[in-house]
C-alpha cells in the first residue's frame, strides 16, 4: 500500500472518535439558510456561469491551491482563541492524511479568511484570486467535522449527494423539498464537479443531512439501504481521504 494510503487508513481508524458529534446536536439549517449554491457554497460569478453552462469543471488545475498550501487568517474580532484552536485542530486532521498544509498568511496574494459571524456555515469553492472566505458560526457549527466539511469546499471539493451515480443509492423526496432549493439537489454532470473516479460514498462527510432543504421537517434524502444514515459531520471517510489525495497528490515533492 502506498504511504499516503496507509497514513490515511491508520488516521481514519484512530481519529474517528475525535470527530464525534451527535447527529441530533448538529442543526444542518446553518448550511442552508444563506441562499448560496447548494446552501453553503459561495460561488464566484465565473463559477456560477460555469455551473449554468455545465460544459466545464468548476474547479480546474489552476483553481487548486498552489503547492498544496492554503494561507489563512482567522478573524480575531469574531473568533476567540479557543475557537481558533478548534479550527486549527480541524485543519490538522486534514494535514494528517494528505500533503495539504494550512499556513498563516504572510505576503501571499491568494488566501483564506475565516470568520465567525453569528449565523451560517459556508465557504468559497477552490482557490479564487485574492480573498477567499469561510464562516463558522460559533453557536451553530463550531464542530470539527463541520469545519472539515467547509475546508473541503475551500480545497475545491463539492457535495457527494449530487454525484452522478447517486440515484443507485438514494431517493429524493421532492414533495418535501423547499421549491427554492430544488436546484440544490439536482445531479451534477461528471464535468461540473468531478468525483475523481471515486464511487458514491454513503459515509462521506461531504453529504447533505437527511432533512436538508426540507419544507416541513420531513426527510428529503433517504438511502435505499435502510440500515445506513446519511450526512454525518463526524469524520472523513476513507473515500473522502482518497479523493482529496487524488486531487492534491503532492505538494513540494
Automatic annotation (TrEMBL):
Q: Which SMART domains match?
A: ZnMc
Q: Which Gene3D superfamilies match?
A: Collagenase (Catalytic Domain)
The record's comment on cofactor binding reads: Binds 1 zinc ion per subunit.
**Top-level EC class:** hydrolase
Entry's EC annotation: 3.4.24.-
Instruction: Please name the PROSITE patterns in this protein's record.
Output: ASTACIN (PS51864)
Q: Which residues bind Zn(2+)?
A: 149, 153, 159
What is its cofactor? Zn(2+)
May I ask which residue range the UniProt record assigns to the signal sequence? 1-18
Supply the alphabetized keyword list: Hydrolase, Metal-binding, Metalloprotease, Protease, Signal, Zinc
One Pfam short name = Astacin
Q: Could you tell me which residue ranges the Peptidase M12A domain spans?
A: 50-251
Superkingdom, taxonomy of origin:
Eukaryota
Which segments cross the bilayer?
none
Query: What PANTHER family does the entry give?
Result: DISCOIDIN, CUB, EGF, LAMININ , AND ZINC METALLOPROTEASE DOMAIN CONTAINING (PTHR10127), MEPRIN A SUBUNIT BETA (PTHR10127:SF814)
Q: What is this protein called?
A: Metalloendopeptidase
Species annotation: Aedes albopictus
Amino acid at each position: 500500500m502506498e504511504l499516503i494510503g496507509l497514513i490515511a487508513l491508520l488516521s481514519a481508524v484512530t481519529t474517528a472518535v475525535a470527530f464525534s458529534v451527535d447527529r441530533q446536536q448538529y442543526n444542518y439549517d446553518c448550511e442552508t439558510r444563506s441562499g448560496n449554491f447548494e446552501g453553503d457554497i459561495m460561488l464566484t460569478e465565473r463559477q456560477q456561469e460555469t455551473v449554468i453552462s455545465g460544459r466545464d469543471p468548476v474547479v480546474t488545475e489552476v483553481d487548486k491551491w498552489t503547492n498544496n498550501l492554503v494561507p489563512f487568517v482567522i478573524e480575531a474580532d469574531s473568533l476567540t482563541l479557543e475557537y481558533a484552536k478548534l479550527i486549527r485542530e480541524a485543519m490538522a486532521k486534514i494535514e494528517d492524511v494528505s500533503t495539504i498544509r494550512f499556513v498563516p498568511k504572510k505576503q501571499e496574494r491568494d488566501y483564506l479568511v475565516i470568520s465567525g459571524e453569528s449565523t451560517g456555515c459556508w465557504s468559497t469553492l477552490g482557490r479564487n484570486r485574492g480573498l477567499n472566505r469561510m464562516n463558522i458560526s460559533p453557536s451553530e457549527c463550531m464542530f470539527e467535522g463541520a469545519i472539515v466539511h467547509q475546508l473541503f469546499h475551500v480545497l475545491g471539493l463539492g457535495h457527494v449527494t449530487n454525484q452522478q451515480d447517486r440515484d443507485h443509492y438514494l431517493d429524493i423526496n421532492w414533495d418535501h423539498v423547499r421549491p427554492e432549493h430544488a436546484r440544490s439537489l439536482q445531479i451534477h454532470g461528471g464535468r461540473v464537479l468531478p468525483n475523481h473516479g471515486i464511487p458514491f460514498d454513503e459515509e462521506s462527510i461531504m453529504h447533505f443531512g437527511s432533512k436538508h432543504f426540507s419544507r416541513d421537517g420531513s426527510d428529503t434524502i433517504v438511502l435505499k439501504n435502510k440500515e445506513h444514515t446519511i450526512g454525518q459531520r463526524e469524520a472523513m471517510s476513507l473515500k473522502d481521504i482518497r479523493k482529496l489525495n487524488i486531487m492534491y497528490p503532492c505538494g513540494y515533492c
